[in-house]
Design brief:
There is one protein chain. Helices cover 63% and strands 0% of the residues. By secondary structure, it is an all-alpha fold. The chain has one domain: lambda repressor-like DNA-binding domains (434 Repressor (Amino-terminal Domain)). The model has no long low-confidence stretch (mean pLDDT 83).
Length: 83
């Protein structure tokens, strides 16, 4: 399920906001280790609550948040012509 998250886009947005992964983890109230596990491709997915907090902290648009946290779903929807 970790492949749902677009890790490269997420990392880019963290850098744009001049944050570190550690700082973002603190701001969403999870441990640094948990955050790192979640950003590994084979790691656990972020919960909806965590995704919403990250989207707010990083000032993501709805499209950006969808592209980051629901990457595979967005790609499948576009391929099937549903978007």
């Amino acid at each position: 399920m970790g492949d749902m998250t677009n890790i490269q886009l997420l990392k880019g947005k963290i850098v744009e906001k001049k944050l570190t992964q550690k700082k973002l983890a603190e701001q969403i109230n999870i441990s640094r280790a948990s955050f790192y596990r979640k950003i590994k491709t084979e790691g656990d997915a972020f919960s909806i609550g965590e995704a919403l907090k990250i989207a707010k902290i990083l000032s993501l648009t709805r499209d950006e948040a969808s592209s980051i946290f629901f990457n595979s779903i967005v790609a499948e929807t576009r391929q099937s012509g549903m978007a």
